[in-house]
């Protein structure tokens, strides 16, 4: 059985769908917190609730005793750990919750699995660990010791804990650095979803900086394929980039959303945000070599698919 933490969230629900399609047995845990409306996450997972090979447990990863009980009651042999407190900007306002959930929650899981004979532990990390690097594209062995937000610091801390537990207890461990994931079910506060909603409603959108910042936007199906592929491998401890390996300027991204919605954006230019980086850009050659990762969805096709989903799922 495969445990997916954060299994009702944006990425986690898509991973769960894929695993169930493959005939795997999945136990999904989520705390359904109010970072965004819990009903959205419940809708993400609703269609799987009646499946025989799926189980949903509402639990917080900071509750170590409840987690222990889940492992005791279920034959879990692989873990995909995606549960986390998300968001770069909110982490600057309230760093303590990022330490509590991201670091302590991950440590709870590692302490539990150390003696369980887990076949594979996959951790969902973030490109934010690279900080404001001017060495592009980002390669896994680039320095990652200068994070510029508490969120990024928490993710890098978790990578280090994963290394420690792999070393001490021989747990096969893969840390996946995701690059700006988007697509259907994307959280409502994330840029693409937020821009689409505000443009559609004829409201003003805030563009931070001059619009020339660049992101490596990665469609969720490519991320899911990467996660599932690495789950089928066994690495003592490795870090992998999962991105689209192309950069997209913010102004071009906005123009694609405008084109697909059929409305012009009312843009309010704002100063750069603390914690934001000017560019993210993944070198995925290591992921391609070691488990065949190959992103397939272009930003143009991805935005088209996202806007199609948005049109059918307006609040």
Give the strand order, joined by hyphens, for the main sheet.
3-2-1-4-5-6-11
CATH superfamily of the domain at 2-181 and 218-243: NAD(P)-binding Rossmann-like Domain
> Low-confidence runs (pLDDT<50, min 5 residues)?
none
CATH topology of the domain at 2-181 and 218-243: Rossmann fold
* Total DSSP E strands: 13
Element-level helix/strand string: EHEHEHEHHEHEEHEEEHEEHEHH
What average pLDDT do the residues reach? 95
- Any idea of the CATH class of the domain at 2-181 and 218-243? Alpha Beta
| DSSP helix fraction | 40-55%
Oligomer: single chain
User: Number of DSSP helices?
Assistant: 11
CATH architecture of the domain at 2-181 and 218-243: 3-Layer(aba) Sandwich
What is the distance, rounded to the nearest whole angstrom, between the alpha carbons of the first and last residues?
A: 35 Å
Strand content: 15-25%
* Structural class category: alpha/beta
Query: What would you call the shape?
Result: globular
Summarize the entry for a quick read.
This protein has about 325 residues and is an alpha/beta fold. It has helices at about 10-20, 40-45, 65-75, 90-95, 95-115, 150-170, 190-200, 220-230, 250-260, 285-290, 300-310, and strands at about 1-5, 25-30, 55-60, 80, 120-125, 175-180, 180, 205-210, 215, 220, 235-240, 250, 265-270.
């Amino acid at each position: 059985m495969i445990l997916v933490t954060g299994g009702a969230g944006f990425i986690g629900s898509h991973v769960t769908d894929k695993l169930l399609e493959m005939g795997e047995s999945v136990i999904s845990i989520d705390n359904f917190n109010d970072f965004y409306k819990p009903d959205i996450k419940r809708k993400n997972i609703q269609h799987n609730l009646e499946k025989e090979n799926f189980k949903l447990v509402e639990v917080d990863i900071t509750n170590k005793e409840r987690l222990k009980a889940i492992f005791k009651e279920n034959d879990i042999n692989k873990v995909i750990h995606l549960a986390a407190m998300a968001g770069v900007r909110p982490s600057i306002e309230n760093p303590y919750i990022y330490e509590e959930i991201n670091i302590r929650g991950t440590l709870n899981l590692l302490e539990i699995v150390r003696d369980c004979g887990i076949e594979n532990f996959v951790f969902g990390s973030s490109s934010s660990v690279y900080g404001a690097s001017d060495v592009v594209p980002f390669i896994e062995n680039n320095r990652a010791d200068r994070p510029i937000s508490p969120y990024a610091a928490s993710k890098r801390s978790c990578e280090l804990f994963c290394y420690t537990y792999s070393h001490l207890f021989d747990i096969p461990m893969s840390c996946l650095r995701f690059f700006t994931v988007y697509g259907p079910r994307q959280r409502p506060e994330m840029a693409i979803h937020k821009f689409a909603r505000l443009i559609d409603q004829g409201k003003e959108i805030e563009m931070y900086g001059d619009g020339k910042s660049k992101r490596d936007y990665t469609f969720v199906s490519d991320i899911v394929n990467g996660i599932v592929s690495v789950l089928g491998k066994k690495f003592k401890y490795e870090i992998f980039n999962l991105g689209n390996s192309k950069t997209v300027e913010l102004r071009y991204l906005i123009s694609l959303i405008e084109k697909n919605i059929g409305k012009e954006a009312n843009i309010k230019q704002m100063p750069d945000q603390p914690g934001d980086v000017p560019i993210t850009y993944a070198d995925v050659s290591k992921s391609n070599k070691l488990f065949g990762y190959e992103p397939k969805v272009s930003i143009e096709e991805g935005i088209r698919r996202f806007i199609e989903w948005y049109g059918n799922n307006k609040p």
